[in-house]
Design goal:
331 residues; alpha/beta; TIM Barrel; 2 domains; 12 helices; 8 strands; globular
């Protein structure tokens, strides 16, 4: 029996070269760097990796590259394909690469009943050669209700956990309350940075968090402090994380804000696969400078030269939400 999923799994971006192709060398450098920073595992082909904008073969390429650079760390690979046959094909591919599990969203694009969603996951679980984490992200895919998730968790051994990116702490607590007492090894992973410390306090097993690709040191500190019961320290790091996350997640054209964060940490990421409008490019320059200030305040000095804050990098007196509102008003 494999070990339960625990820790911080990083949903990595995909860097591109000048021709818009996957920059394999830079992706390998990112994964190696994240490993050196101590992340628990990797999560290729998530929303952060723009999986929906990659071809099927490119998604396979990304998982292969990450698996070759993971150095034994577990991989939770995105396998959200548009139909069951392709999902199962990707499950087999990830199993052959030695991934620990795959993450599968609810079906996307078409609105489905909860009965259909439950049957969808039951069919996949019955045929998958690899463990499955059910990914609830209602902004982009059909939401999976807690009763459906509970039945799947208790009936399907292949379904070993859930990732929740609903930003709904009440729902996440219900998942813990309904499933953990009957299946303690079922992994409950939070997918929203602002809730990490709270989720850990309530019994989460960790998270799959995009900001861990930009500041892995901060996310691992929160996780390790929480595991050790050092809640005052965990809370302090969580509060520092809030400003950075809000700037990156509210930047125009997700995941542009996070890609800017990677760039400020020293990576050559290239242009994303969806273009920014001219006004958005100018606004991203401003947001990028603000992100640099937050990174500087958190001690990441490589970003200091690009900080454009009027307080010289001290964001303690800056209302980040007001900054974002001001930026978005200009669109």
């Amino acid at each position: 029996m494999q070990q339960p999923l625990k820790g911080i799994f990083t949903p990595n971006i995909v860097p591109y070269d000048a021709k818009g192709r996957i920059n394999e060398d830079e992706l390998r450098r990112i994964i190696s760097w994240l490993g050196d920073k101590g992340v628990s595992g990797f999560y290729p082909n998530g929303s952060m990796g723009e999986f929906i904008r990659l071809s099927y073969e490119e998604r396979k390429q990304v998982v292969k590259i990450v698996s070759e650079e993971a150095r034994g760390r577990p991989i939770l690979a995105g396998a959200a394909e548009p139909n069951i046959d392709l999902v199962l094909e990707m499950c087999g591919y990830c199993a052959d690469l030695g991934c620990r599990a795959v993450s599968i969203t609810g079906p996307y694009y078409y609105k489905l009943t909860q009965e259909s969603i439950e049957q969808y996951f039951r069919e996949i679980a019955a045929k998958s050669p690899i463990d499955i984490v059910i990914y609830n992200i209602p902004n982009f895919a059909n939401e999976i209700s807690v009763p459906v998730l509970k039945r799947l968790a208790l009936d399907c051994p292949r379904i070993v956990g859930t990732k929740d990116t609903s930003a709904d702490m009440c729902r996440f607590q219900q998942v813990l309350h309904e499933i953990k007492p009957q299946r303690p090894e079922f992994a409950a992973l939070i997918g929203w940075e602002e809730l990490l410390c709270t989720a850990m306090f309530m019994g989460a097993d960790g998270g799959t968090l995009s900001t861990s690709g930009v500041v892995p040191e901060v996310l691992m500190k929160i996780y390790n402090d929480a595991v050790a019961g050092n809640w005052d320290s965990a809370k302090q790091a969580q509060f520092k994380l809030l400003d950075l996350f809000r700037l990156m997640v509210n930047a125009p054209n997700f995941p542009e804000g996070f890609r800017a964060g990677y760039e400020l940490r020293g990576f050559n990421i290239g242009n994303a696969r969806f273009p920014l409008a001219p006004d958005e490019r100018r606004l991203m320059d401003d947001i990028r400078g603000r992100i640099a200030c937050v990174l500087t305040e958190c001690g990441f000095s490589e970003a200091a030269s690009q900080c454009k804050c009027p307080t010289g990098g001290d964001l303690g007196r800056v209302d980040v939400e007001a900054i974002v509102r001001d930026v978005m008003r200009k669109l």
